[in-house]
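Students often ask why we bother encoding 3D structure as a string. The short answer is that it lets us treat folding as translation between two languages. Here is a chain of 451 residues written in the first language.
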Amino acid sequence: MRRPWRALFGRRARRRWLHLVLGGALFMPYWLVGTVVMGPLMDSGPVLASSLAVQFGAYAVGLPLAAVTALFPLTRPLSVAAARALCGVAPERFAEGPARGREARTRTAGWFTLHLGAGALVSGASLALPPFALAVAALPFSAGLRDAEFGRLWHPDRPWLVWAALPLGLLMLLGLAAAAAAAGALLASAAPRLLGPSPADRLAAAERRAADLAVRNRLARELHDSVGHALSAVTLQAGAARRVLDAGTPDLDFVREALTAIEEATRRSVGELDAVLGLLRSGEDSGELAAPGLDALDALVRGAGRRVELTVRGDLAGLPEAVSREAYRIVQEGLTNAVRYARQETVTARIALSGDELEITMENPLPGTAPVARPDGGHGLRGVTERARLLGGTAEAGPVDGLWRLTARLPVGRAGDRSAPPAGDRSAPRAGGRSAGPAQGRPAGPAGGAR
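And here it is in the second language, the structure alphabet:
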């Protein structure tokens, strides 16, 4: 008994009834236009006192008018908002934004016409039927009502008809509720098909998701490269400074250099972190991140925390900003891996601009013991590959002749035409501090999956 009652008068049924009444209210302007058209044709009187034929004729005229006006793109967002609130359909089954394309507009027009047409019938019945049903139900209790309104229907030889009016009036009200519930269920079942996403909407949504994922991946790479490198460098410098201080005759100049490198690395990392977090808070991609380029290599090498032999061939000042920025990140990731996995050996980094290609090669000797891989396999080399691929280049890493080698080739377009001819290598050992043994907390060694 509870389920039928809830189906007719429950919260969802009441909301759908309200949705139908809203459709009837929206149909009123079209119905009035229809009465203006039908009135002269059928020679009727005033609009509100016109015959049922005129009113249903106006109804028939108003439906095509509603369908035509529903072809405007903004009809769908308004219909979706009302249906989401009142139809009891899951919100994700509706399309977002204005209707674009013939198919989407046609389906929206079909929904709008169905909503207004069914709403007009249910609204008219909701206004006219309850007073009539209550009057019928009151006939057994009012002789004056029987004589005045229904005298022709009753006969003294059939007094049972008087008492039959009571359940008849109640059945009328139940029938109205059932009709409204059925119309609401019809709208709810038709809403996902008529207001749901079209293939064009699904494609647009997929493109938006792909763009969002691309932004998230780019921000994740920036965080991994900048913060990961800074933490590795800080860990190594702090460990080296602690060992020097624990020595019998501490080298205060070395400790001062290590603290300076820590300060520079953390200041640079905090600035980059603020830029990334600013984009995350805004929820949108507002352009390229203010990441450093190859002009910041000296500071990067100083913070690496071990002896780094850097060789630069060619004029890097003419590189496009995107290439310079991604090349910096690739070098940064290579130094981060060297800090983590190499021991006291010199890390070799070569950057060569030749024609329209920038080649980055980083090497460090392999250790004698196998490394312990990360459980998640690491993301550094994957990020290097993604950066190179985004620029149309390639990247590869692995053991070669007893060395761990990372090689990336990036096309630079016309940058090679602007670069000066090589005037010899600018090669000099650069160190961010004295060698202080392996980094603490991680076994040394190569592992492509662990890097």
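Translate back mentally: Residues 2-197 form one domain. Keep this in mind for the problem set.
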